[in-house]
Amino acid sequence: MIALLSPAQAFDQVRRSVFLSSAPEHDVPSDELLAQVARRAIAIMAPCPAYELVHAMAQSFGSVSGKAGAFAERVGGIVEDLIVYGDILEMRESADDSWAGTKSFVLRPAPPSFVRRKDGSVAIVGIAGEQITPLTVELNSRVIHHGVLRIIPTAENEDLEALLIELGLLKLPEKTWLRLPAFETAASHVASWRQLLATEPITTPIEGLQILDTGRPPIFYKGRWVSPNRTHTGMYVARRPQRYGAPRWCLADLANGVLRRFKDLSTRGDRLRPFDIAWRIQAALDADAGTPQRFDTSTKDSSNTTLRFYSPIPSWCERHLSIAGRKGTAERCLFCFEVPTAQVGTETGFLQEALWMTERA
Questions:
Q1: How far is it, in rounded angstroms, from Cα 24 to Cα 12?
Q2: Which residue from 130, 189, 205, 308 lies 20 to 30 Å from 333 (Cα-Cα)?
């Protein structure tokens, strides 16, 4: 029998098919639903480029997704978060891929794993095929979804780690999951990249080049992106357009707004993603210029404190914060993290050491 369903009813059917507990859905799908659908989709489609996964999901939801462009952008953000937290792996193509030779990155599902958090709970990462997770029905019912992050609280007198290992999940040491870079001073970080940039050959101007203006306050990230002009001399984080795909992250050496040389951003073995490298370099440039990037803290209640951010932070920094806290949104900032008040000192110290940030007065 064929029945006509409302969008909310359709989303409820999808929730059950991707092992989400029953909860009211509205006329647009929730983030947790999209995350589960993305996990199943990549298990079927992998290996594939990120844009193919986003396009397939956006098409699947069709007319119930609202404005197509805005919905695709939202799905892209969900996929990005899944990459950040380690459910999906982004890696260079292999010789077996059908498009081998394009030198592009492709997505693959990560193996089911878990990471212990500071409060004793565990974060579940990775994908177990179309079933998404190898958890038992009882464990799956205990999963709490914080955006795309899946958390299982530890029950009293329970050896949750042993149970997860018995189910076939891998235990990821915190250090392995975080993939933190070496810490150094902002001046040292800037100097090392300036030295690498100086080895690049002289180039011709690039039409459409955009730079992050270190001279503009770091409070408004989007407003810092400008076209080079005569006031710009020195090293800048930049994005240069390419014929196909998104603009590439690079460093640009300018003299009175004229491009002298550039260096595309990467690390050996692609251990860090280009924008993660760029955002840390920008944090170092800001700190070295005497205008370090800042964050706000405000006490939500006696046990939780909110950290507000005004500039993007690298993926490894976001993973570090998620060990103790929970990512969210707030007014007049890019994003925020809610962390236990007892952990605030540790987290702010990490931000000061890793990204040379300061707390706003």
A1: 7
A2: 189
What backbone torsions phi and psi does residue 117 show, to the nearest 5 degrees? -95, 170
Asked if 174 and 191 sit in the same domain, the reply is: no
On whether both 263 and 346 belong to a single domain, the answer is no
Does residue 99 carry a pLDDT above 50? Answer: no
66 and 41 co-located in one domain = yes
Same domain? For 90 and 101 the reply is yes
Please provide the size of the chain in residues: 361
Contact 115, 161 (CB under 8 A): no
Same domain flag for 115 and 104: no
Instruction: Name the pTM for this structure.
Output: 0.86
In this structure, is residue 14 part of a structural domain?
Answer: yes
Determine how β-strand 170-171 pairs with β-strand 113-116: parallel
Q: In 10 A of CB 83, how many CB atoms? A: 19
Residue range of the domain that includes 261: 186-288
Residue by residue, DSSP assigns 122-186 as: EEEES--GGG-----HHHHHH-EEETTEEEEPPPTT--HHHHHHHTTPEEPPHHHHH-PPPP--H
Mean pLDDT in the chain?
Answer: 89
> Over the range 321-332, which residues count as b (16 or more CB within 10 Å of their CB) and which as e?
bbbbbbbeebee
pLDDT of residue 276: 94
Give the pLDDT of residue 266: 85
Is 1 part of any domain?
Answer: no
Half-sphere exposure of 269 (CA within 13 A, CB side): 2
Domain identity same for 52 and 14: yes
Q: Is 189 exposed, middle or buried (0-12, 13-18, 19+ CB in 10 A)?
A: buried
Average of per-residue pLDDT across 132-145 = 90
Confidence band for 133, pLDDT divided at 50, 70 and 90: confident
Where helices occur in the chain by DSSP H, the ranges are 7-17, 31-45, 50-61, 68-85, 137-142, 160-166, 174-178, 186-198, 274-288, 315-324, 344-355
Residue 226, in any domain of the structure? yes
Distance CA 70, CA 53 (A): 16
Q: How many H helices and E strands in the chain?
A: 11, 17
